[in-house]
Amino acid sequence: MSRLVSGFSKLSKTEKVNWLIKNHLSDYDGAENTLKQYWNSDQKLQQLHDEFIENTITNYYLPLGVAPNFVINDKVYTIPMTTEESSVVAAASKAAKFWQTRGGFKTTVISTNKIGQVHFTYTGDFKALETYFNAIKPQLIEDAKPITKNMEKRGGGILDIELRNKTNALDNYYQLHATFETLDAMGANFINSCLEQFAKTFTANAESTLPKPINVIMSILSNYVPECLVRAEVSCKVEDLAEKDIDPNTFAEKFVQAVKIAEIEPYRAVTHNKGIMNGIDAVVLATGNDFRAIEAGVHAYAARNGQYSSLTHAKIENGVFTFWMEIPLALGTVGGLTNLHPLVKLALQVLDQPNAKTLMQIVAVAGLAQNFAALRSLTTTGIQEGHMKMHLMNILNQFEATPDEKLKIVDHFKTNIVTHSAVVEAIEKLRA
Ligand code: MEV
What is this enzyme's EC (predicted)? Predict the structure, then answer.
């Protein structure tokens, strides 16, 4: 109980660190140094990071890598990726290079609509509610003008508001279901502000019109965006899939079968899609977007037909192999971290300052490429060969291997299979 604290957020950063060490880290050797070694000596930069969240005590580093050679709609991209998983960037780069000589990736944005809802209860007659909604709808849009006028100037704004009767599923439950175009902004703040204004207008005017009050439960955007959809595809003649030790026909057939398994088997689909998200999250994070929102929306989409299923699809038709994915991605290239985090700004510059639609296409390609790389390994050499090669450095670092030891051991594993125990054995042998 002594760990309970009040007014913690008001303490200075050093006071917070001291409190943490006293209450949680007294037995942890070098805790203060571990925390402080990640503080940036540039005060301004550190303050920027401190102020991203409450109660910052230090910075948590993740690597920012780049995967070059992505040809997307005939333009070459180098894709920035932030991830802790050792094989992700290597796999993306490998897939990019593979498709670079086979026509590259083709992408299209299918739609860009986003959704927000005012959830409310009403105990009166539906007809009266409907009549009231139809009468007040123009006012809902009008009262939101101070929020929407700039977005409208650029061609976005509120697309529609519907009244939805959900009383079959939950007693007295209705929604204002609104659709938005938020252009290059991810749009969460814009949508939420509009919704809260709708709720105000909707309840205030109801008092004098409806026999029963409207009880607003909450107003919030939806991260389920099945109408903010992008498609990414690769395609080539089956014979062109040939590589040094891969027979193209066997490979293409096994690959398509692997995708079909993920289409019908949820246990496999979850891992299959997790691999896609390895690529997607890494670009989403590097470009300062909300990866939790993306994850939630993507997995909901993967289950849209009632069973969790593969996001990617593959076929062989008339000797042509095609592999594609349609995926919902609500992304922004303005607002949020995009104008704040120096590395996010830099990552967007590496991508030639894409607008939101272009970023949707790049991110979808990163996901498709990642899935291609995973399935190629899984259906040929097995996943561990590549994974463990990339993981080797992590194991060596755990054993605090010197640069010379690293060189020797990496060299040894060029011709030997990497397993945790084999690496430990090699280190022990070298040191003996
Ligand atoms: C590992 O992070 C991702 C994979 O498991 C994906 C897959 O199985 O398709 C390799």
Answer: 1.1.1.88
- For ligand 1, the distance from its centroid to the CA atom of residue 272, given in whole angstroms, is 6
Please determine, for residue 192, whether its predicted confidence score (pLDDT) is greater than 90. Answer: yes
- In this structure, are 144 and 291 located in the same domain? no
**Domain for residue 298, yes or no?**
yes
Q: What is the mean pLDDT of residues 99-110?
A: 98
Tell me whether residue 85 is one of the annotated catalytic residues: yes
The verdict on 84 and 127 lying in the same domain is no
In a domain, 1, yes or no: no
Is the beta carbon of 341 within 6 A of some atom in ligand 1?
no
Q: What is the pLDDT of residue 1?
A: 57
- Positive or negative, the Cα torsion across 84, 85, 88, 90? positive
Residue-wise pLDDT for 398-420, tens only, equals: 999 999 999 999 999 988 888 89
Indicate whether 421 belongs to any domain.
yes
Question: 297-325 in b/e burial notation, b at 16+ Cβ within 10 A?
Answer: bbbbbbeeeeebbbbbbbeeeeeebebbb
Could you tell me the strand order of the sheet in which 173-181 lies?
157-165, 173-181, 114-121, 215-221
Per-residue pLDDT reduced to its tens digit, 38-73: 999 999 999 999 999 999 999 999 999 999 999 999
161 and 296 both lie in a single domain: no
pLDDT of residue 384: 76
Distance from residue 70's CA to the centre of ligand 1 (Å): 21
Q: Which two tokens stand for residue 141?
A: 């849009």
pLDDT at residue 283 in the model: 98
Q: How much distance in Å is there from the Cα of 90 to the middle of ligand 1?
A: 14
Report whether residue 97 contacts ligand 1, using a CB cutoff of 6 Å. no
User: Whose Cα sits closest to atom 6 in ligand 1?
Assistant: 275
Domain of residue 404, residue span: 387-431
Ligand 1, atom 1, residue with closest C-alpha: 275
How far apart (Å, rounded) are the C-alpha atoms in residues 184 and 378? 37
CA 86 to ligand 1 center in whole angstroms: 12
- Same-domain status, 43 and 98: no
Residues 244, 323 share a domain:
yes
Task: Answer yes or no: is the C-beta of 274 below 6 A from any ligand 1 atom.
Answer: yes
Q: Within a domain: residue 215?
A: yes
Question: Residue 170 is part of a domain; what is its CATH number?
Answer: 3.30.70.420
Number of structural domains found in the chain: 4
272 is catalytic: no
